[in-house]
Specification:
By secondary structure, the chain is an alpha+beta fold. Bound molecules: S-adenosylmethionine. S-adenosylmethionine binds next to strand 24.
Amino acid sequence: MSDKRRGGKRGGKPGQVAENYRHYEATSPMRPEIGTQPQFRKKKPPTTYRYDSSLSPALSWDGQNPGREIGEWLLRLISEAAALPEPHAFDQPRELRAADGTVLAAVGSLQEAVEQLRRLGRSFLDWTGKAERLSFDVPTLPLFIHERLSTKAIIETLTGHKRDKQQTMFELFGDPQHSITDQTLRAYEYPDKWVNRLVLGDSLVVMNSLLHYESLGGQVQMIYMDPPYGVKFGSNFQPFVRRRDVSHNDDADMTREPEMVKAYRDTWELGLHSYLTYMRDRLLLCRELLAPTGSIFVQISDENLHHVRELMEEVFGHQNYLNTIPFAKTSGVTTQFLASRVDFLLWFARDRARAKYRDLYLQKSPEAGTADTYTWVELPDGTRRGLTAAERRDRSLIPEGARIYKPDNIATQGNPVFPFEFNGKTYAQPWKTTSEGMKALAAAGRLHVARNSLQYVRYLTDFPCVPVTQLWEDTQTGSFTDDKIYVVQTATKVAERCLLMATDPGDLVLDPTCGSGTTAYVAEQWGRRWITVDTSRVPLTLSRQRLLTATFPYYQLKEETRGPAGGFVYVRKQNRRGEEVGGIVPHVTLKSIANNEPPEEEVLVDRPEVDNSFVRVCGPFTVEATIPTPVDWEGDGVPDSGAADAEAYGSFVDRMLEVLRKSPVLHVGGGKTVTLRNVRPPAKTLSLAAEAVVVNGDERPVAFVFGPENGGLSQLAVHEALKEASLKGYAHLYAVGFAIQPDARLLIERSAEMGLPPASYVQATPDLMMGDLLKNMRSSQIFSVCGLPDVELRCLPDKRYEVKLAKLNLFDPATMAAKHMDAADVPAWFLDTDYNSLCFHVSQAFFPRTGAWDDLRRALRGEYDDTVWDHLAGTVSAPFEGGEHGQVAVKVIDDRGNELLVVKSLRDATA
Ligand SMILES: C[S@@+](CC[C@H](N)C(=O)[O-])C[C@H]1O[C@@H](n2cnc3c(N)ncnc32)[C@H](O)[C@@H]1O
């Protein structure tokens, strides 16, 4: 049963009930939740991808060319197969194998051998590094679920003041509630109900995970990829949630994310050459994911259009090219020569012969210029005349009841010519129909007498639409329908058209370059399933907000129990002026009149029936990430945490120590820094990595522990370090990491309370693992002390609770004093009113001082009192009842998209 039926209308007035779509028939394998990360053991080796070596990276028969061996092998097979009787097929396919056993080429017949040889001879694009890289490895990592979100669950919690009726609530989140044991031991074995997914990580790693942990190969109906255009680095990324201006190559403007910086390195080390490698690798995985009927759209500007098309031909096959779509972009870019007004979509099918394609139409209208060729009019008394110049300019001058038409061809060269008499005159033309058909056209008043010929009367209303063609001129952003939140946002109309052409409701859509989530937004609107990926937290923060607060029309479902996969309802209907306004429109043709047949009907896929008694909100979705499995340097006795890991950790600590010595500066927010001196390894230590003295600070030294290279700092590591720091009398412990597990963060927060030295979490930018990648990096940007939200949990007189985000505390190591940032200045914060320590369920989502929730607030007017929405734009939660886990969690998103998590026990609530 659908959410809609279950929820019912609650007696609301039209336009007041929030509803979402669920994909009941689709499943995806259970993913582990982030809280089980330390126990996760289902590791997989990296996956090797090989390029089809029959596509020679350097086609020349001289020297050490990998294509040469294949070419010669094919020539031998051709002469062998030619001697066989027709159809010249081998009993068994012949294979050419590399030294390691991998199949380089396989051929079943003479025809196939010839075809492959031909491909070897085709021209190709070459670049530095291509020939040397016929295969590449991608780490095979699991995806952990960090957050579950559901707009409906938020609305329910706000009205019920609790996450009550636990089962229903989990259902709203799409949370199957697997036990920790199952998540640890049987992750990826159970099929769970489908929920849509926002994933943080490099697209290559995430797509590899989808292929090898989830077997999603061949299941994605459409991929929309809007990669960096390969022109300038800075213009494609936005480091701050609330700032859209990005200057090039300014260090301070760069998003300092592990994945982000890696993408930077992968993409740009060799400029365009690396870009081509970056694109080819990702396109190869896209191809693996595409369904046999699927297609991919790559958005690109004219600078690299030609290269990317060649790449795509190489990966997908030139025979699978479908089209290049120029579409109008926001504003013309003025150059010395012609202003550039369009970007492009390169459209390829996985297999052209099987590609899914739905025709799209635009309304034919004089205003839009799509009816300009209709220049005749038939008045109510039957007389016909050309439109006057005034009527052409202003169609409202056309007399009421008149029918606009255009005289159209009624003859086609090559058809038999025969005489036909009309109004006393005989015409001999190669008619498109028979003599009976001509009589039927005459009887229907469909003949127009031109000077020397007869023509067909095509009324504007015969088919009120025109097909969408290759050139999309109406796609500029910046109109009031598209609020621009991201510096490189795609217009929804562009992504929407691709989606409507290439998919049906319920199909799966992937965008490996999420940005502000345009593809996900459009997919959600049209009832498609979606997965979207980005390397950077800033765009994911923007997408999460955009999706969570969106409202969409409720398109009526044909079969509610199936969800969108059952299709939408389309009907034929007319408005008072008799215009066709439904999703099914008649298509009167010359043929249908000539043959006395009822007109054909076309479905306008973008015009399903809308049920206005529902406000549709985004369905449940998850936020996931490829957090690498932590290295077991803690020596927990698990067999696979061997000496090699310990050794690796050793060299990692040495490198970190080296960096800290060279850049002994901690960034403490607000542009302030603190400098350390005497950075050195402590004598005889068990768990500490370094000690130092703060310049102009406390005389007692401070201690450091470093998180692992490939994972989050664990609670155990922090605890051991705190104990040792306490014994040795250090003034403070700094836990330095690329990521931190939530329980470790908690421990840091509470260390002083527990009688241990005070501690701070220091976020290390991953750049420092990348050698000379960012040569001009300022040392103050390497380590930043992460703020901690100051959260007050209050117990109200009616026994309900309330959370207030008081401020964001920033620690200043020089003065050992805390600074504060106003809570209302954070871009977003979330509350889980019953945190289970495994995954964050967003019960309330706050976007302070913004109108983020305004659309929904307006749509649900009357249903919820205004204070509910006021809470969501502020820093104090709506009241809620305590839950079974006895604790709440608050997640604050800072302006770089960093997530700061605080957990509070209900026992600690103040009155
Ligand atoms: C041009 S933007 C996409 C904008 C998007 N179409 C929209 O409407 O907002 C490209 C995005 O790709 C992301 N990106 C770049 N390299 C990536 C990679 N290797 N994996 C995942 N995302 C990547 C960037 O962070 C950026 O947000």
